Amino acid sequence: MKSIRQILSDHAVRPSKRLSQSFLADSSIMERIVEAADIQDMETVVEIGSGLGLMTALIAGRARRVTAVEIDGRLIPILEEQLEGYRNVEIIQKDILDYDFAEAKGDNPEQKIKVIGNIPYGISSPILFHLLSNRKHLSTAVLMMQKEVAERLRAVPGTKAYGIPSVLFGLFTRISMERDVAPGSFYPKPEVTSSVLKISFSDEPLFPVRDVALFSLLVRTAFAKRRKTLFNNLKSLMAQGPDNKNLQDLLASLGIGETKRAEELSIQQYAALCNALFEIKKRNKYS
């Protein structure tokens, strides 16, 4: 099998810094990623950033159908050449942020899609939240990303890494750490260590939440200025609702001290706070 460097050289392609391109070159790690996805023979898989098609071929050997999404037009001829013998692969040149995962369902709207990808460091957060917004179409994602981003997704309350991604993903997903991947496994070598996560999506919140949009707004407002207390951050959210005294009473009723900061609350506490705010919104009819 030709090396990543040789394949790129044969096609006069150089990795794009603009696209944060760093190709996984270790076949054993590719196999571990595909294995972690537990692909069944009737399932459809969307691959984010198919690159040179090496991992795509492994996926195609297991799945009924593979949609290989690649933004870089220079790589499309390479993908077509590498995957010529695979009739179950559809290659799409597109930004994954513009991709509607419902398209991958084809004539089976009830099926759930699996996602695999080595997501670019530069836009990992937008991609992750795009997946979260498409969760009703997805069952599982096995993704490689910068270790720092992976740590934020799995962070627990009271830690520096705990923030908006930790809470919003914690409401709708279960995440397991599969492995770390050293820079030497890529070409060209990135400057950071990567991690592979397995993310299982749920249609419904894992904790009771009356209004998901309000939950998202609450969490984003709470973490807007991390140096401020939760109370001070939430005052802006409550500008058209209860006054400060009512906000103090509300937090106290939930056992949340006025000096607490956003990173100290658990997902369950955010859910409880959201539900309490929802009830106030119903009563006061503020928007």
Descriptive overview:
- This protein has 287 residues and is an alpha/beta fold.
- It has two domains: 4-201, Vaccinia Virus protein VP39 (Rossmann fold), CATH 3.40.50.150; 212-284, rRNA adenine dimethylase, C-terminal domain (Helicase, Ruva Protein, domain 3), CATH 1.10.8.100.
- It contains eleven helices and nine strands.
- The protein has helices spanning 4-10, 27-36, 54-60, 76-82, 124-133, 147-153, 164-172, 212-222, 230-237, 244-253, 267-284, and strands spanning 23-24, 44-48, 65-70, 89-93, 113-118, 138-146, 173-181, 186-187, 194-201.
- The strands form two sheets. It has a seven-stranded mixed sheet, with helices on both faces.
- α2 packs parallel to α3 and α8 (212-222) crosses α9 (230-237).
- The model has no long low-confidence stretch (mean pLDDT 93).
Assign a percent range to the helix content: 25-40%
Round the mean pLDDT to the nearest integer and report it: 93
* Strand count: 9
Query: Would you list the SSEs in sequence order as H and E?
Result: HEHEHEHEEHEHHEEEHHHH
- The largest sheet has its strands arranged as 4-3-2-5-6-9-7
The CATH class assignment of the largest domain is Alpha Beta
Fourth-level CATH superfamily of the largest domain: Vaccinia Virus protein VP39
Number of helices: 11
- The structural class is alpha/beta
CATH T-level topology of the largest domain: Rossmann fold
Beta-strand residue fraction: 15-25%
Approximate shape: elongated
| Domain unit count | 2
Distance between the first and last residues' Cα: 60 Å
Poorly predicted runs of 5 or more residues: none
- Rg, nearest Å: 22 Å
Q: What does the largest sheet look like?
A: 7 strands, mixed
Counting copies of identical and different chains, the oligomeric state is: single chain
